[in-house]
Amino acid sequence: MTRIYSLILVFLCVVMVFAIDEFEHAPIQYSKSIPKDPISKLQTKLDSGVTKLDYSEEHGYLPALLKALKVPIESQILVFSKTSLQLRHITPKTPRAIYFNDDVYVGYCHSGDVLEFSAVDPQLGAVFYTLEQQQKSKPQFQRQVDRCLICHASSRTSNVPGHLVRSLFVDSSGQPMLSGGSHSVDHTTPIEQRWGGWYVTGRHGSQSHMGNLVIRTRDTPRDLDNSQGHNVMHLKDRFDTGMYLSPHSDIVALMILEHQAMVHNRLAKANFTTRMALDYEVTINKALEIPAGKRLESTTRRIQSAGDDLIDGLLLVGEAKITAPISGTSGYAEKFSQSGITDKRGRSLRDLDLTQRLFKHPCSYLIYSQAFDDLPVEMKNYVLEKLWQILNGVDKSKKYAHLSDADRLALIQILSDTKPGLPPYWKK
Question: Which of 78, 148, 76 is nearest to 117 (CA)?
Fold first, then answer.
């Protein structure tokens, strides 16, 4: 009885400690930990003088930073909803530009006070920064925690510091019309619910969406006609595109961003969950005088649950159907595909389909990321073993029915050729 009471007492203490922002406590200690993300690494180079940033009178540090961080200008997408730190600068006439690559996102507002950054840290998830748009001999990134985590650490981001993509109705000032509802967007979101508050350039056939739409009335119409916002090839009649590095807000870039943001969040969740479960296990074992290293069933369940969510994200489970060919305007699709690692047959996880689904070979390219490689060994082993079981047909769960036999074989071959560090059973 004493043993059971001790277990309950320890459990309640742990729950109380982790009830609010559990990632701020051991073993994560999000705010206290020193990041090792692309921005922190760039700051080290700036401090040492190894790297210098040119300053542009028109766009400040933006062009130099995109070059230093290897972020393509073609990735530019434009959002005109007031859903950012610099909301006073954002309207349909002055949208906020976002640029991104595999591990960093850059936000730019015309005449904005700062540049905004979200960088992926393998151990901390999303880490947020700002940089003043004033010329200095040694620019200094400022890490942002409290202000950003209000929105970027909630159920919408899997309750970890993460990335958030939303779709909602917006009025002529850029103010969200929340009475019309909103959608958190990833690759599972139906096309017709995407891109509210965003500009969208590209072709998508008869598929409807909420992009390029500004509500001019006080109320959100029930039966909305957004035909004027569909298959838009340029934005020059909507605002002055010359204020930006590119005149585009590419539809393919939007779709990649939505997929990527989800997987980044699930990678962080998988990492945090494993580390917290193992730390909790140590506490319980010590309190109950159980031999150190004894694996609790609850630890296994927590790791498997977060691992399954990550696998579903990697394999694009529940991906929304594409019913007509999609093509962008900025050249982003070509840029994205060309940077892929190819197997012996010339195939890559960056090969795009864009006729029925996003990728030709439905497995996320983020499996090559540092965030995946640095997952705790317990999580990484679980994910790789289950992926192998799915692709070899051992796991016949219905949710993986979207993977044809040809898909599974191609993914086994591509990953075996291109992914370092796979367990030996992958090679058989």
Answer: 148
Whole-model pTM: value is 0.92
For residue 160, give both structure tokens. 């970890």
Q: Which of 186, 423, 193 is nearest to 313 (CA)?
A: 186
Give the residue ranges of the chain where pLDDT is below 70: 1-20, 221-222
Instruction: Write out pLDDT tens, residues 333-380.
Output: 999 999 999 999 999 999 999 999 999 999 999 999 999 999 999 999
Angle at 295 between CA 291 and CA 300, to 5 degrees: 165
Token pair of 25 as six digits: 């406590």
The predicted structure's pLDDT at residue 3 = 42
Kindly report the average pLDDT of the chain as a whole number.
92
| Pairing status of strand 96-100 against strand 77-79 | antiparallel
Cα 164 from Cα 208, distance rounded (Å):
22
| pLDDT tens digit sequence for 283-333 | 888 888 888 888 899 999 999 999 999 999 999 999 999 999 999 999 999
How far, in Å, CA of 323 to CA of 399, rounded? 20
- Residue among 364, 191, 342 at smallest CA distance from 266: 364
Residues 6+ apart with CB under 8 A from 110: 89, 94, 243, 244
